[in-house]
């Protein structure tokens, strides 16, 4: 399967703990996005990478959140000192270089539950 | 700032009926519009992408139209089947600087056998 993969699929943690999620985009997709989706809502943009450069961060991404994409391949999203309000589905998407198309392909998501 | 709305939030139709799903957006400078399907607890599956220069796209039983002047897109699903039951989301892409998507809240569809 050459789609976007995310790990873990589910994460349960206690308030105050740190968590890290990983996203592996489709091969040769240089653009990578993180979104957050709460129950019954549409996804909301968090951050965007082009290759290894993080080019945009939403105001939703507080200083407890950090994302990286070393070497322009996989990406990680870390949440420090988790709060109950961080409980959500975290979705990763990738798309090809701009001139090759704009369709975003999503992974299965990581569901975070903060107790 | 782009805002995307999907009404109704939920609908139920008998099997075989055509489905019409609505999506409205506030910024007519939209670069593209993408329709997705989401099954409960799962990620998003891309259905169709319409570029701003296009008026419609078709894939099998699915047809999506885009009218920038009125700020609307419509997804038609012909001859609905129980397997079409899911939440359908539309998202507007801004194009520049990464094509960030702004999503609507989705329409939850139930197709009754």
- State the share of residues found in helices of chain B, binned by percent: under 10%
> Can you count the beta strands of chain A?
11
* Helical content band of chain A: under 10%
Let me know the average pLDDT of chain A: 94
> How many helices of chain B does DSSP assign?
0
Order of helices and strands of chain A: EEEEEEEEEEE
Strand tally of chain B is 11
Q: Could you describe the largest sheet of chain A, including whether it forms a barrel?
A: 7 strands, mixed
- Oligomeric description of these chains: heterodimer
The geometry of chain A reads as globular
- Per DSSP, the total helix count of chain A is 0
Main sheet: strands, sense, barrel of chain B: 6 strands, mixed
Distance between the termini of chain A: 33 Å
CA-to-CA gap between the ends of chain B? Answer: 41 Å
* Element string of chain B (H = helix, E = strand): EEEEEEEEEEE
Q: Low-confidence parts of chain A lasting 5 or more residues at pLDDT below 50?
A: none
Radius of gyration of chain B: 13 Å
How would you describe this structure to a colleague?
- The complex is a heterodimer of chains A (115) and B (113).
- Chain A is mostly beta strands and 115 residues long.
- Chain A is 0% helix and 49% strand.
- In chain A, strands 2, 4, 5, 6, 9, 10 and 11 form a 7-stranded mixed β-sheet that branches. In chain A, strands 1-3-8-7 form a 4-stranded antiparallel β-sheet, with no helix packed on it.
- In chain A, β4 and β5 (44-50) form a beta hairpin.
- Chain A is globular and about 45 Å long.
- Chain A starts with a strand and ends with a strand.
- The model of chain A has no long low-confidence stretch (mean pLDDT 94).
- Chain B has 113 residues and is mainly β.
- Helices cover 0% and strands 55% of the residues of chain B.
- Chain B has no helices and 11 strands.
- In chain B, a hairpin with a 7-residue loop joins β9 and β10.
- Chain B is globular and about 45 Å long.
- The A-B interface holds A 4, 6, 31, 33, 35, 40-45, 48, 50, 55-56, 91, 93, 95, 98, 102-109, 111 and B 4, 6, 31-32, 34, 36, 41-46, 49, 51, 89, 91, 93, 95, 97-106.
């Amino acid at each position: 399967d050459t789609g976007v993969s995310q790990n873990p699929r589910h994460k349960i943690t206690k308030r105050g703990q740190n968590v890290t999620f990983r996203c592996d985009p489709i091969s040769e997709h240089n653009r990578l996005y993180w979104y957050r989706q709460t129950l019954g809502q549409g996804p909301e943009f968090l951050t965007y990478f082009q290759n290894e450069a993080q080019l945009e961060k939403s105001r939703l991404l507080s200083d407890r959140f950090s994302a990286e994409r070393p070497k322009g391949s996989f990406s990680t999203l870390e949440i420090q000192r988790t709060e109950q309000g961080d409980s959500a589905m975290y979705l990763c998407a990738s798309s090809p270089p701009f001139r090759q198309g704009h369709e975003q392909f999503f992974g299965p998501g990581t569901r975070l539950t903060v107790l | 700032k782009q805002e995307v709305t999907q009404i109704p939030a939920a609908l139920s139709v008998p099997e075989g009926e055509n489905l019409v799903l609505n999506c409205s957006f506030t910024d007519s400078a939209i670069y593209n519009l993408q329709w997705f399907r989401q099954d409960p607890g799962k990620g998003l599956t891309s259905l169709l992408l319409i570029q701003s220069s296009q008026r419609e796209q078709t894939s099998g039983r699915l047809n999506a139209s885009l009218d920038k002047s009125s700020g609307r897109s419509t997804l038609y699903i012909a001859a609905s089947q129980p397997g079409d039951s899911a939440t359908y989301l539309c998202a507007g892409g801004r194009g520049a600087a990464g094509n960030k998507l702004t999503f609507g809240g989705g329409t939850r569809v139930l197709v009754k056998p």
